[in-house]
Amino acid sequence: MRKLTTYILFVAACVAIGVLSGIANMPGEWYQALEKPPLNPPNWIFGPVWAALYVMIGTALAETWFDENNRNRLIVFGLQGILNICWSPAFFGMQNPPLGLAIILPMLFFILLFIAMSWNANRKAALLFVPYAVWVSFATHLNLAIVLLNR
Questions:
Q1: C-alpha gyration radius of the chain
Q2: What is the pTM assigned to this prediction?
Q3: Mean pLDDT of 71-97
Q4: How far apart (Å, rounded) are the C-alpha atoms in residues 48 and 51?
C-alpha cells in the first residue's frame, strides 16, 4: 500500500506542477504573433501531450525512488525537473525564446543522461523517459526555429 501511495503522490505532484506551470504561463498574443516553423503543432495538442508525459515522469520517479543506489539518478532527475519548471516562465512568461533555448538544451541533456543511467538499473524508468526525450527533442527544435525565425 505504501508503494502505491508513493506512485500516486509522485504522479499527482508531477501532473499538478505541469498544470500550474501551464496555467501560469499561457502562450497568449505574444506567442501567436511569432513566426513559427512549418512543423509547429496546433496549440491544443500541448496540454494532452504534457499531461501524458507528466504521468510517465511521475511513474519514472516512483520507479527510481524504490531502487537501490538511486542517489545519482535522483539528482539527475531533479536537475531535469528544475529545468523543466523553468522553461515555461522563461519562454512564455518572460517572452524570451533565447533564454528558453538556454534552458531546454541542458534539460534535454539531463533527460538523456537519466535514460542512460537508468537503462541497466531500471529499464522501466528509462523507457518511461523515452517519449519525454522525443518530445523535448522536438520542443528544442521548435524553440531553436522560433529563435532563428524571429531575430
A1: 16
A2: 0.95
A3: 97
A4: 5
